[in-house]
Please model this.
Amino acid sequence: ASAAGARGRAEFVEARDARTYAGAVAELDRGERLAKTGPELPVATMLDLTLPAAHRILYLFDPAGELHTGATQVERLRYLDHGEALLFVIDPFALPELRLALSADEHRIVEEATATSDEDPSDTLQRLLAELRSRDDQGRQRRIAVVAAKADVLRKTGVGGGLDTDTRGWLEGLGLGNTIRTLERTAGE
Model:
């Protein structure tokens, strides 16, 4: 599978990754719920990127947040020794402040639509950053992006207001201000 655009082209290096991606898209198209990321150590998904000014192989790792629940488990994620960019995906329904703000009806909507993590994203990030700080460069990243996942479900709740217009303010309002500032100090961009 590949995708091309005015800014470049991307395709999976491994056929198994292309099949996994196509299967996930088909599940979503049928309105099904994707399985939660498993507890096993992740294997890299490789993308071959052809950009106007460069050609790169991108290695993507998708560890379950639960793999960051203890120092011993985080130490097993050796690919962290080499990363230059971090995509921090937050399950908003794992945020204690958000869960408390949901009505009973909204809790039912969330439970029917998606599996949620029990791990507070702030705790996950602190353990991850502690491991990164053991690197020679103190865990410095060139870029960090933050993604609020499950926005489609979030928009069905009253708590989702502001997510699309002021994502940073929305996250800060849910108690992630310190987390965002920590990420800014860790990244060049």
